[in-house]
Amino acid sequence: MQVPLIQLQCGVNSYDWGKVGHESAAAKYAAATKSSKFSIENEKPYAELWMGTHPSLPSKDVETQRSLLELVQDNKALMSTEISRKYGEKLPFLFKVLSIRKALSIQAHPNKKLAEQLHAKDPKNYPDDNHKPEMTIAITPFDGLCGFRPLKEISHFLANVPSLRGLIGEEAAKAFEEGVNGRETSNSAEDIQRNKKALQTAFSALMTKEKSTIAAAAKELVASAEKDGENFAGSGGPSNGGKELADLVLRLNGQFEGDVGLFVLFFLNYVKLEVGEAMFLKADDIHAYLSGDIIECMASSDNVVRAGFTPKFQDIPTLTSMLTYSYAPISEQKMNPVDYPYVTLNRTAYSSSSSAILYDPPIEEFSVVKTELKGKEARATFEAIEGPSIIICTAGSGKISVGPKSEQVRAGYVFFVGATAECILESDSECFTTFKAFCELSGKETANGANGVS
Protein backbone atom coordinates (compact mmCIF):
# COMPACT_ATOMS: atom_id res chain seq x y z
CA MET A 1 0.00 0.00 0.00
CA GLN A 2 1.21 3.53 -0.79
CA VAL A 3 2.88 5.37 2.10
CA PRO A 4 0.52 8.29 2.83
CA LEU A 5 3.11 11.03 2.24
CA ILE A 6 2.64 12.90 -1.05
CA GLN A 7 4.58 15.94 -2.21
CA LEU A 8 2.21 18.41 -3.85
CA GLN A 9 2.54 20.79 -6.76
CA CYS A 10 0.32 23.77 -5.97
CA GLY A 11 -1.01 26.51 -8.21
CA VAL A 12 -0.77 30.26 -7.73
CA ASN A 13 -3.36 32.86 -8.72
CA SER A 14 -2.46 36.21 -10.28
CA TYR A 15 -4.80 38.93 -9.02
CA ASP A 16 -4.13 42.66 -9.20
CA TRP A 17 -3.82 43.02 -5.41
CA GLY A 18 -0.97 40.48 -5.17
CA LYS A 19 2.67 41.32 -4.53
CA VAL A 20 4.74 41.62 -7.70
CA GLY A 21 7.33 39.15 -8.93
CA HIS A 22 9.82 37.82 -6.40
CA GLU A 23 8.32 40.05 -3.67
CA SER A 24 5.43 37.58 -3.48
CA ALA A 25 5.81 34.73 -0.98
CA ALA A 26 2.99 32.92 -2.81
CA ALA A 27 4.99 33.03 -6.06
CA LYS A 28 8.29 32.01 -4.45
CA TYR A 29 6.67 29.03 -2.76
CA ALA A 30 4.93 27.98 -5.99
CA ALA A 31 8.22 28.14 -7.88
CA ALA A 32 10.13 26.14 -5.26
CA THR A 33 8.64 22.73 -6.06
CA LYS A 34 11.24 20.85 -8.06
CA SER A 35 8.88 19.59 -10.78
CA SER A 36 7.03 22.87 -11.20
CA LYS A 37 7.12 24.44 -14.67
CA PHE A 38 6.05 27.72 -13.09
CA SER A 39 8.53 30.59 -13.37
CA ILE A 40 8.11 34.00 -11.79
CA GLU A 41 7.63 37.02 -14.06
CA ASN A 42 9.16 40.13 -12.50
CA GLU A 43 6.30 42.50 -13.39
CA LYS A 44 3.37 40.19 -12.67
CA PRO A 45 1.33 40.21 -9.44
CA TYR A 46 1.00 36.89 -7.60
CA ALA A 47 -1.70 36.78 -4.95
CA GLU A 48 -2.58 33.30 -3.66
CA LEU A 49 -1.01 29.85 -3.42
CA TRP A 50 -3.78 27.22 -3.08
CA MET A 51 -3.23 23.90 -1.32
CA GLY A 52 -6.07 21.40 -1.40
CA THR A 53 -8.73 19.76 -3.55
CA HIS A 54 -10.85 22.78 -4.55
CA PRO A 55 -11.66 22.39 -8.26
CA SER A 56 -10.73 25.98 -9.13
CA LEU A 57 -7.03 25.26 -8.53
CA PRO A 58 -6.47 21.67 -7.34
CA SER A 59 -3.11 20.51 -6.04
CA LYS A 60 -1.32 17.63 -7.80
CA ASP A 61 0.96 14.79 -6.81
CA VAL A 62 4.45 15.87 -7.92
CA GLU A 63 5.37 12.35 -9.05
CA THR A 64 2.24 11.18 -10.87
CA GLN A 65 0.61 14.55 -11.74
CA ARG A 66 -2.71 13.12 -10.55
CA SER A 67 -4.84 15.64 -8.66
CA LEU A 68 -5.08 15.33 -4.90
CA LEU A 69 -8.86 15.19 -5.36
CA GLU A 70 -8.52 12.03 -7.47
CA LEU A 71 -6.18 10.46 -4.96
CA VAL A 72 -8.41 10.99 -1.91
CA GLN A 73 -11.48 9.85 -3.83
CA ASP A 74 -9.74 6.66 -4.99
CA ASN A 75 -8.41 5.89 -1.51
CA LYS A 76 -10.83 7.03 1.18
CA ALA A 77 -8.43 5.91 3.92
CA LEU A 78 -6.22 8.92 3.06
CA MET A 79 -8.79 11.24 4.67
CA SER A 80 -10.53 8.63 6.87
CA THR A 81 -13.82 7.06 5.91
CA GLU A 82 -15.72 9.33 8.32
CA ILE A 83 -14.31 12.58 6.90
CA SER A 84 -14.70 11.36 3.30
CA ARG A 85 -18.35 10.59 3.94
CA LYS A 86 -19.09 13.84 5.79
CA TYR A 87 -17.39 16.16 3.27
CA GLY A 88 -18.32 14.48 -0.01
CA GLU A 89 -14.90 12.91 -0.63
CA LYS A 90 -13.20 16.33 -0.72
CA LEU A 91 -10.72 17.88 1.68
CA PRO A 92 -12.81 19.85 4.20
CA PHE A 93 -10.43 22.80 4.21
CA LEU A 94 -8.60 25.00 1.70
CA PHE A 95 -5.11 26.07 2.76
CA LYS A 96 -3.55 29.19 1.22
CA VAL A 97 -0.65 31.61 1.28
CA LEU A 98 -1.71 35.18 0.45
CA SER A 99 0.76 37.91 -0.57
CA ILE A 100 -1.06 41.24 -0.36
CA ARG A 101 0.30 44.40 -1.97
CA LYS A 102 -2.89 46.44 -1.95
CA ALA A 103 -6.36 46.20 -0.47
CA LEU A 104 -8.59 43.24 -1.16
CA SER A 105 -12.29 43.94 -1.53
CA ILE A 106 -14.51 44.78 1.42
CA GLN A 107 -16.18 41.42 1.73
CA ALA A 108 -17.90 38.71 3.71
CA HIS A 109 -18.41 35.01 3.12
CA PRO A 110 -21.95 33.62 3.37
CA ASN A 111 -23.05 31.07 5.94
CA LYS A 112 -24.02 27.59 4.77
CA LYS A 113 -27.72 28.32 4.21
CA LEU A 114 -27.12 31.59 2.35
CA ALA A 115 -24.30 30.00 0.31
CA GLU A 116 -26.72 27.36 -0.94
CA GLN A 117 -29.28 30.03 -1.89
CA LEU A 118 -26.74 32.29 -3.64
CA HIS A 119 -25.19 29.36 -5.52
CA ALA A 120 -28.60 28.21 -6.76
CA LYS A 121 -29.55 31.72 -7.89
CA ASP A 122 -26.19 32.94 -9.27
CA PRO A 123 -23.60 30.16 -9.73
CA LYS A 124 -21.38 32.41 -11.87
CA ASN A 125 -20.68 34.81 -9.00
CA TYR A 126 -21.19 32.28 -6.19
CA PRO A 127 -19.54 29.05 -7.38
CA ASP A 128 -19.88 27.06 -4.12
CA ASP A 129 -22.73 25.98 -1.86
CA ASN A 130 -20.53 25.89 1.25
CA HIS A 131 -19.81 28.37 4.03
CA LYS A 132 -16.33 29.89 4.40
CA PRO A 133 -15.19 30.70 7.93
CA GLU A 134 -11.47 31.51 7.78
CA MET A 135 -8.37 31.96 9.89
CA THR A 136 -5.43 34.24 9.16
CA ILE A 137 -1.89 33.81 10.54
CA ALA A 138 0.69 36.50 9.76
CA ILE A 139 4.03 35.37 8.30
CA THR A 140 5.09 39.00 7.72
CA PRO A 141 3.56 42.12 9.35
CA PHE A 142 -0.09 42.38 8.24
CA ASP A 143 -2.86 44.95 8.44
CA GLY A 144 -6.55 44.79 7.63
CA LEU A 145 -10.08 45.88 8.44
CA CYS A 146 -11.92 43.20 10.40
CA GLY A 147 -15.32 43.25 12.09
CA PHE A 148 -17.34 46.21 13.31
CA ARG A 149 -15.73 48.52 15.85
CA PRO A 150 -17.17 49.03 19.35
CA LEU A 151 -20.18 51.32 18.99
CA LYS A 152 -18.63 54.18 20.98
CA GLU A 153 -15.83 54.38 18.42
CA ILE A 154 -18.31 54.59 15.54
CA SER A 155 -20.18 57.36 17.38
CA HIS A 156 -16.86 59.15 17.89
CA PHE A 157 -16.16 59.12 14.14
CA LEU A 158 -19.68 60.26 13.25
CA ALA A 159 -19.09 63.24 15.56
CA ASN A 160 -15.55 64.01 14.35
CA VAL A 161 -15.47 63.21 10.62
CA PRO A 162 -17.81 65.74 8.94
CA SER A 163 -17.59 64.10 5.51
CA LEU A 164 -18.68 60.75 7.01
CA ARG A 165 -21.61 62.32 8.83
CA GLY A 166 -22.61 64.26 5.74
CA LEU A 167 -22.52 61.16 3.60
CA ILE A 168 -24.67 59.07 5.93
CA GLY A 169 -27.00 62.00 6.52
CA GLU A 170 -27.79 63.93 9.68
CA GLU A 171 -31.01 62.04 10.33
CA ALA A 172 -29.38 58.61 10.05
CA ALA A 173 -26.36 59.70 12.13
CA LYS A 174 -28.58 61.04 14.92
CA ALA A 175 -30.74 57.94 14.85
CA PHE A 176 -27.64 55.80 15.35
CA GLU A 177 -26.26 57.94 18.18
CA GLU A 178 -29.57 58.08 20.02
CA GLY A 179 -30.28 54.42 19.33
CA VAL A 180 -27.10 53.13 21.01
CA ASN A 181 -26.43 55.88 23.57
CA GLY A 182 -26.00 54.39 27.04
CA ARG A 183 -26.35 50.84 25.73
CA GLU A 184 -23.09 50.52 23.76
CA THR A 185 -21.63 47.84 26.03
CA SER A 186 -24.86 46.39 27.45
CA ASN A 187 -25.04 42.59 27.67
CA SER A 188 -28.83 42.58 27.53
CA ALA A 189 -30.05 40.50 24.57
CA GLU A 190 -32.70 43.13 23.84
CA ASP A 191 -30.14 45.97 23.84
CA ILE A 192 -27.74 44.00 21.65
CA GLN A 193 -30.47 43.43 19.06
CA ARG A 194 -31.43 47.11 19.10
CA ASN A 195 -27.78 48.08 18.72
CA LYS A 196 -27.30 45.72 15.79
CA LYS A 197 -30.38 47.11 14.07
CA ALA A 198 -29.11 50.68 14.55
CA LEU A 199 -25.69 49.68 13.18
CA GLN A 200 -27.25 47.96 10.17
CA THR A 201 -29.33 51.03 9.37
CA ALA A 202 -26.37 53.42 9.57
CA PHE A 203 -24.01 51.15 7.63
CA SER A 204 -26.61 50.50 4.93
CA ALA A 205 -27.18 54.25 4.60
CA LEU A 206 -23.48 54.60 3.74
CA MET A 207 -23.26 51.63 1.41
CA THR A 208 -26.27 52.57 -0.70
CA LYS A 209 -25.14 56.11 -1.52
CA GLU A 210 -24.55 57.04 -5.17
CA LYS A 211 -20.94 56.71 -6.33
CA SER A 212 -20.78 60.35 -7.36
CA THR A 213 -21.88 61.43 -3.88
CA ILE A 214 -19.28 59.18 -2.28
CA ALA A 215 -16.53 60.48 -4.57
CA ALA A 216 -17.35 64.10 -3.68
CA ALA A 217 -17.30 63.32 0.06
CA ALA A 218 -14.04 61.41 -0.39
CA LYS A 219 -12.31 64.54 -1.71
CA GLU A 220 -13.26 66.35 1.49
CA LEU A 221 -12.08 63.40 3.59
CA VAL A 222 -8.72 63.19 1.80
CA ALA A 223 -8.16 66.94 2.14
CA SER A 224 -8.79 66.63 5.89
CA ALA A 225 -6.38 63.68 6.15
CA GLU A 226 -3.67 65.67 4.34
CA LYS A 227 -4.17 68.76 6.50
CA ASP A 228 -5.01 67.49 9.99
CA GLY A 229 -2.36 64.84 10.66
CA GLU A 230 -2.50 63.75 14.31
CA ASN A 231 -5.72 65.71 14.82
CA PHE A 232 -7.53 63.85 12.04
CA ALA A 233 -10.84 62.20 12.95
CA GLY A 234 -10.90 63.67 16.46
CA SER A 235 -7.34 62.45 17.10
CA GLY A 236 -8.36 58.99 15.94
CA GLY A 237 -10.33 57.65 18.87
CA PRO A 238 -9.36 55.02 21.46
CA SER A 239 -8.03 52.31 19.14
CA ASN A 240 -6.09 54.26 16.50
CA GLY A 241 -4.10 57.49 16.36
CA GLY A 242 -5.18 60.38 14.14
CA LYS A 243 -1.99 60.28 12.06
CA GLU A 244 -2.35 56.49 11.69
CA LEU A 245 -5.87 56.85 10.27
CA ALA A 246 -4.93 59.84 8.11
CA ASP A 247 -2.08 57.85 6.58
CA LEU A 248 -4.45 54.91 6.03
CA VAL A 249 -7.00 57.09 4.21
CA LEU A 250 -4.30 58.52 1.95
CA ARG A 251 -2.81 55.11 1.23
CA LEU A 252 -6.17 53.54 0.35
CA ASN A 253 -7.24 56.53 -1.72
CA GLY A 254 -4.06 56.06 -3.74
CA GLN A 255 -5.22 52.52 -4.52
CA PHE A 256 -8.99 53.10 -4.93
CA GLU A 257 -9.60 56.80 -5.39
CA GLY A 258 -12.96 58.02 -4.08
CA ASP A 259 -14.10 54.54 -3.02
CA VAL A 260 -16.76 53.91 -0.35
CA GLY A 261 -14.12 51.85 1.49
CA LEU A 262 -12.49 55.11 2.63
CA PHE A 263 -15.56 55.59 4.85
CA VAL A 264 -16.14 51.95 5.72
CA LEU A 265 -12.83 52.00 7.63
CA PHE A 266 -14.50 54.18 10.28
CA PHE A 267 -17.00 51.40 10.94
CA LEU A 268 -14.48 48.53 11.03
CA ASN A 269 -11.62 47.64 13.36
CA TYR A 270 -8.22 48.48 11.91
CA VAL A 271 -5.99 45.61 12.99
CA LYS A 272 -2.27 44.97 12.74
CA LEU A 273 -0.83 41.50 13.21
CA GLU A 274 2.79 40.77 13.96
CA VAL A 275 4.42 37.56 12.72
CA GLY A 276 2.68 34.58 14.37
CA GLU A 277 -0.40 36.50 15.45
CA ALA A 278 -3.73 35.24 14.14
CA MET A 279 -7.42 36.03 13.92
CA PHE A 280 -10.55 34.07 13.08
CA LEU A 281 -13.47 35.32 10.98
CA LYS A 282 -16.81 33.57 11.18
CA ALA A 283 -19.07 33.29 8.13
CA ASP A 284 -20.93 36.60 7.65
CA ASP A 285 -18.10 38.66 9.25
CA ILE A 286 -17.06 41.73 7.24
CA HIS A 287 -13.38 42.31 6.48
CA ALA A 288 -10.82 43.66 4.02
CA TYR A 289 -7.18 42.58 4.06
CA LEU A 290 -4.82 45.46 3.25
CA SER A 291 -1.19 44.30 3.19
CA GLY A 292 1.21 41.56 4.23
CA ASP A 293 1.89 37.85 3.73
CA ILE A 294 -0.38 35.43 5.55
CA ILE A 295 -1.19 31.79 5.97
CA GLU A 296 -4.94 31.40 5.52
CA CYS A 297 -7.09 28.37 6.20
CA MET A 298 -10.80 28.16 5.49
CA ALA A 299 -13.65 25.81 4.86
CA SER A 300 -13.40 24.69 1.22
CA SER A 301 -15.29 27.41 -0.64
CA ASP A 302 -14.57 30.29 -3.01
CA ASN A 303 -17.69 32.38 -2.30
CA VAL A 304 -17.14 36.11 -1.77
CA VAL A 305 -19.78 38.84 -1.36
CA ARG A 306 -18.02 42.11 -2.27
CA ALA A 307 -18.88 45.77 -1.77
CA GLY A 308 -15.91 48.11 -2.17
CA PHE A 309 -12.17 48.31 -3.01
CA THR A 310 -12.72 46.21 -6.14
CA PRO A 311 -13.58 46.45 -9.84
CA LYS A 312 -15.21 43.00 -9.55
CA PHE A 313 -18.91 42.19 -9.16
CA GLN A 314 -20.35 43.93 -6.09
CA ASP A 315 -23.48 42.76 -4.30
CA ILE A 316 -24.30 45.49 -1.80
CA PRO A 317 -27.90 44.39 -1.05
CA THR A 318 -26.71 40.89 -0.14
CA LEU A 319 -23.79 42.18 1.92
CA THR A 320 -25.80 44.65 3.98
CA SER A 321 -28.53 42.09 4.67
CA MET A 322 -26.27 39.10 5.47
CA LEU A 323 -23.87 40.59 8.03
CA THR A 324 -24.21 39.63 11.70
CA TYR A 325 -23.54 43.24 12.78
CA SER A 326 -21.66 41.93 15.78
CA TYR A 327 -19.48 44.70 17.23
CA ALA A 328 -16.43 44.19 19.41
CA PRO A 329 -12.83 45.32 19.85
CA ILE A 330 -10.34 43.51 17.65
CA SER A 331 -8.91 41.75 20.70
CA GLU A 332 -11.98 39.51 20.61
CA GLN A 333 -11.14 38.32 17.07
CA LYS A 334 -7.46 37.72 17.72
CA MET A 335 -6.67 34.12 18.57
CA ASN A 336 -4.66 32.80 21.50
CA PRO A 337 -2.58 29.86 20.26
CA VAL A 338 -1.59 27.15 22.74
CA ASP A 339 1.05 24.42 22.85
CA TYR A 340 0.05 21.51 20.62
CA PRO A 341 -0.16 18.49 22.94
CA TYR A 342 0.21 15.66 20.43
CA VAL A 343 3.84 16.18 19.42
CA THR A 344 7.09 15.02 20.99
CA LEU A 345 10.21 17.18 20.68
CA ASN A 346 13.63 15.56 20.92
CA ARG A 347 16.26 16.91 23.32
CA THR A 348 17.85 19.11 20.66
CA ALA A 349 14.50 20.72 19.85
CA TYR A 350 13.52 21.13 23.50
CA SER A 351 16.83 22.65 24.58
CA SER A 352 16.75 25.17 21.70
CA SER A 353 13.22 26.36 22.63
CA SER A 354 11.67 24.87 19.51
CA SER A 355 7.88 24.93 19.51
CA ALA A 356 4.69 23.51 18.04
CA ILE A 357 1.71 25.77 18.67
CA LEU A 358 -1.95 25.19 17.83
CA TYR A 359 -4.37 27.68 16.30
CA ASP A 360 -7.75 26.08 16.93
CA PRO A 361 -10.84 27.96 15.69
CA PRO A 362 -14.33 27.04 16.97
CA ILE A 363 -15.23 24.94 13.91
CA GLU A 364 -14.49 21.35 12.93
CA GLU A 365 -13.22 21.72 9.36
CA PHE A 366 -9.67 22.76 10.26
CA SER A 367 -7.00 23.63 12.79
CA VAL A 368 -3.39 24.71 12.13
CA VAL A 369 -0.12 23.91 13.91
CA LYS A 370 2.93 26.13 13.45
CA THR A 371 6.19 24.30 14.15
CA GLU A 372 9.57 26.00 14.57
CA LEU A 373 12.54 23.66 14.91
CA LYS A 374 15.60 25.66 15.96
CA GLY A 375 18.94 24.14 15.07
CA LYS A 376 20.17 21.13 13.12
CA GLU A 377 18.78 17.74 14.16
CA ALA A 378 15.92 19.31 16.13
CA ARG A 379 13.03 16.91 15.61
CA ALA A 380 9.26 16.86 16.18
CA THR A 381 7.25 13.64 16.10
CA PHE A 382 3.53 14.16 15.50
CA GLU A 383 1.17 11.47 16.69
CA ALA A 384 -1.15 9.93 14.10
CA ILE A 385 -4.55 11.63 13.86
CA GLU A 386 -7.83 10.44 12.39
CA GLY A 387 -7.79 12.88 9.52
CA PRO A 388 -5.76 14.43 6.68
CA SER A 389 -3.05 17.10 6.91
CA ILE A 390 -1.31 19.48 4.52
CA ILE A 391 2.11 20.82 5.54
CA ILE A 392 3.96 23.78 3.99
CA CYS A 393 7.49 24.88 4.84
CA THR A 394 7.82 28.68 4.98
CA ALA A 395 11.46 28.97 6.09
CA GLY A 396 14.59 26.86 6.53
CA SER A 397 15.04 23.26 5.45
CA GLY A 398 14.87 19.73 6.79
CA LYS A 399 13.13 16.48 6.09
CA ILE A 400 9.69 14.94 6.58
CA SER A 401 9.18 11.24 7.26
CA VAL A 402 6.12 9.00 7.30
CA GLY A 403 6.89 5.33 7.92
CA PRO A 404 9.83 4.26 5.73
CA LYS A 405 9.48 7.25 3.38
CA SER A 406 11.53 10.44 3.87
CA GLU A 407 11.57 13.55 1.70
CA GLN A 408 13.75 16.65 1.72
CA VAL A 409 11.91 19.86 2.58
CA ARG A 410 12.73 23.45 1.63
CA ALA A 411 10.78 26.71 1.81
CA GLY A 412 7.75 26.39 -0.46
CA TYR A 413 7.57 22.58 -0.42
CA VAL A 414 4.08 21.25 0.33
CA PHE A 415 3.12 17.74 1.47
CA PHE A 416 -0.10 15.85 2.06
CA VAL A 417 -0.08 13.43 5.01
CA GLY A 418 -2.82 10.84 5.16
CA ALA A 419 -4.96 9.92 8.16
CA THR A 420 -3.54 7.63 10.89
CA ALA A 421 0.07 8.31 9.86
CA GLU A 422 2.72 9.37 12.36
CA CYS A 423 4.74 12.23 10.89
CA ILE A 424 8.28 13.31 11.81
CA LEU A 425 9.83 16.67 10.96
CA GLU A 426 13.59 17.15 11.41
CA SER A 427 15.60 20.32 10.82
CA ASP A 428 18.92 20.63 9.02
CA SER A 429 18.97 24.45 9.30
CA GLU A 430 19.00 27.12 11.98
CA CYS A 431 15.20 27.52 11.96
CA PHE A 432 12.89 25.15 10.10
CA THR A 433 9.34 26.58 10.05
CA THR A 434 6.25 24.73 8.89
CA PHE A 435 2.50 25.15 9.06
CA LYS A 436 0.24 22.09 9.18
CA ALA A 437 -3.50 22.36 8.44
CA PHE A 438 -5.52 19.34 9.50
CA CYS A 439 -9.02 18.05 10.17
CA GLU A 440 -9.96 15.60 12.88
CA LEU A 441 -13.58 15.15 13.91
CA SER A 442 -12.84 13.46 17.24
CA GLY A 443 -12.05 16.79 18.89
CA LYS A 444 -8.54 15.67 19.83
CA GLU A 445 -7.11 18.89 18.42
CA THR A 446 -8.94 20.95 21.07
CA ALA A 447 -7.34 19.16 24.02
CA ASN A 448 -5.12 21.05 26.44
CA GLY A 449 -1.67 19.87 27.40
CA ALA A 450 2.05 20.39 27.05
CA ASN A 451 4.56 19.16 24.52
CA GLY A 452 6.38 15.99 25.40
CA VAL A 453 10.15 15.52 25.32
CA SER A 454 12.10 12.47 24.20
How is the secondary structure organized here?
Elements: E1 5-9, E2 12-13, E3 19-20, H1 25-32, E4 45-46, E5 48-51, E6 60-61, H2 68-74, H3 81-86, E7 93-100, E8 107-108, H4 112-121, E9 134-138, E10 142-148, H5 151-160, H6 162-168, H7 170-180, H8 189-207, H9 211-228, H10 232-235, H11 242-255, H12 261-264, E11 268-273, E12 278-281, E13 287-299, E14 305-306, H13 316-322, E15 338-339, E16 343-345, H14 347-351, E17 355-359, E18 367-374, E19 379-382, E20 389-395, E21 397-402, E22 405-410, E23 414-417, E24 423-427, E25 431-438, E26 452-453
Parallel strand pairs: 16-26
Antiparallel strand pairs: 1-6, 1-23, 2-5, 3-4, 5-7, 7-13, 8-14, 9-12, 9-13, 10-11, 10-13, 15-17, 16-19, 17-18, 18-25, 19-24, 20-23, 20-25, 21-22, 21-24
Task: Report on the architecture of this protein.
- By secondary structure, this protein is α+β, with helices and mostly antiparallel strands.
- 29% of the residues lie in helices and 27% in strands.
- The protein has 14 helices and 26 strands.
- It has helices spanning 25-32, 68-74, 81-86, 112-121, 151-160, 162-168, 170-180, 189-207, 211-228, 232-235, 242-255, 261-264, 316-322, 347-351, and strands spanning 5-9, 12-13, 19-20, 45-46, 48-51, 60-61, 93-100, 107-108, 134-138, 142-148, 268-273, 278-281, 287-299, 305-306, 338-339, 343-345, 355-359, 367-374, 379-382, 389-395, 397-402, 405-410, 414-417, 423-427, 431-438, 452-453.
- An 8-stranded antiparallel beta sheet has the order 6-1-23-20-25-18-17-15. Strands 2, 5, 7, 9, 10, 11, 12 and 13 form an 8-stranded antiparallel beta sheet that branches.
- Strand 21 and strand 22 (405-410) form a beta hairpin.
- Helix 7 runs antiparallel to helix 8.
- The longest helix is centred in the middle third of the chain and has 19 residues, at 189-207.
- It is elongated, with a radius of gyration of 23 Å.
